[in-house]
Amino acid sequence: MTSGLWELVLQGVWVTIQLLFFSSLLAAAVSFVIGVARTHRLWVVRFLAGVYTEVFRGTSALVMIFWVFFVLPPAFGWQLVPMWAGTLALGLTYGAYGSEIVRGALGAVDPAQKEGGIALSFTPWQRMKLILLPQAVPEMIPPFSNLLIELLKGTALVSIMGMGDLAFSGNLVRLALQESAEIYTYILLIYFVIAFLLTRVMRGLEKKLKAGVGKTAPKRKTVTPEPAEIGGVR
Fold it and tell me: In 3D, which of 136, 140, 138 has the Cα closest to residue 148?
């Protein structure tokens, strides 16, 4: 490829990274707000949070992007730029999945910890801030890492709005060169490199958070048989 086409691809990488950053921030905020609301003592709050989760988890992210960018503007008289439309659609959709991660992690905390907070006369917010979240957040990191990778791959959907992300730029280069195998191989490798780096960062964050609460990340154990047991001989 020429330097101009490579520049186009690199611009697409930058747009994808920006979209990933903004939509992951929104998804994280939605995940914690809705996930904590799913554990609220008032059934009305739990019900409303559950409705949100089911609606956004049960609809297509692609269709949600269509709604935000093409359907809502005529109804409300305003138009979002592609970056913010993609951020809103992806953040709300993947935040619904993340809320279940938060709810599950909070529910997995030892009930004795919650009872200890009640015995100390902590308010519900104090119990959440000082007891539940510090223990639950490290357990959320592995599933959140998977969700972040899914969100990275989901950013390719914004190309339907004509947004110049990596997938859209790669398609322009393919049309210019009339070469699919080479271009899409490069695109696959770029997505893989970004996903690999995200995985490394999240794994380091997991170790740091678990060390902060006196835990260590699980390590795979290797069992070596005794020499006398090899071949079934004792």
Answer: 140
